[in-house]
Design goal:
With 241 residues, the protein is an alpha/beta fold. It has one domain (2-87, 149-239): 3-Layer(aba) Sandwich (Rossmann fold), CATH 3.40.50.300. The chain is 37% helix and 24% strand. The protein contains 10 helices and 10 strands. The strands form 2 sheets. It has a 6-stranded mixed beta sheet with strand order 6-7-8-3-9-10, sandwiched between helices. Helix 3 runs parallel beside helix 6 (144-155). It is globular. It starts with a strand and ends with a helix. The structure holds adenosine-5'-diphosphate (ADP) and magnesium ion (MG).
Length: 241
């Protein structure tokens, strides 16, 4: 589904991501873990077209997509969420979903010009994510966890083949963590591939296989959750020795 080959990003003198290579198999839920500052978000930004790599290639479904902008990748079926959920705070929940379908402000204001298919898709997502009760609230009025759920629902508007989630459970309560996990499992069962950055290790161990470990911009280990947990290099990375 995804092949990352030698990706590198340098900020000033800092090699935030350094010659990093890995693959995400079709229909896996692959985890990307590593200590704070190990380059996870920078890697996501390069894969999803928010940052241009200094070196290396990204292939998505066997096509070289290195340097394509995020909008084109989204339309091609590769989408992502952000560590700090990004939604349009003044738009309502349903408008956020429709907006994710790629409409202009003018089209949103005259909903007659939003294709019936997109309105229906937004309706189904509201139902799937149990967001109907808040459909007409401004996104700013939602709890942080609900905003993350909305952001997740919004990236599904394009019916993506691959979804990258950057810390889906960070800052959300335990009930919402379970909800998030259930939605990932359901979508995975329906054929979506996931690459997940997450600090909640029990969550990663329950949900993800394989697990890729980054340290200082390098991939140091790839394995099953049990292999990674027992690996001495992983302990070293987290303990900073
Ligand atoms: N835009 C930027 N400019 C300069 N340094 C950055 C920038 N983005 C990230 N970094 C640095 O790159 C390293 C990796 O950051 P990041 O990818 O956010 O790590 P992670 O998501 O694993 O915590 C960190 O040392 C961070 O401070
Ligand atoms: Mg990060």
């Amino acid at each position: 589904m995804l092949e990352v080959d030698g990706l590198t990003k340098v900020f000033g003198g800092l090699r935030a991501v350094d010659d990093c290579s890995f693959e995400v198999a079709e229909n896996s839920v692959t985890a990307l873990i590593g200590p704070n500052g190990s380059g996870k978000t920078t890697l996501f930004n390069m894969v999803t077209g928010y940052l241009r790599p200094d070196a290396g290639r990204v292939r998505f479904q066997r096509r070289d997509v290195t340097g394509l902008d995020s909008g084109r990748l989204y339309r091609a079926g590769l989408s992502r969420t952000f560590q700090q959920a990004r939604v349009f705070p003044q738009l309502t929940v349903v408008e956020n979903l429709v907006a994710a379908g790629g409409y202009s402000w003018r089209q949103l204001l005259t909903t007659a010009r939003v294709a019936r298919a997109d309105r229906e898709r937004a309706g189904r997502l509201l139902e799937e994510f149990r967001l109907e009760p808040v459909a007409d609230l401004a996104a700013a009025e939602l709890s942080y966890g609900q905003r993350k759920l909305l952001e997740f629902a919004a990236v599904l508007m394009s019916d993506p083949a691959l979804v990258l989630l950057d810390e889906p459970t960070a800052g959300v309560n335990p009930v919402m963590i379970e909800t998030m996990e259930r939605h990932i499992r359901e979508r995975h069962a329906a054929g979506t591939t996931f690459l997940v950055v997450e600090h909640d290790m029990p969550f990663v161990m329950r949900l993800c296989d394989p697990v890729i470990v980054l340290d200082q911009g390098h991939r140091i280990v790839t394995g099953t959750p049990a292999e990674v947990q027992a690996h001495p290099d992983v302990l070293d990375a987290y303990l900073g020795s």
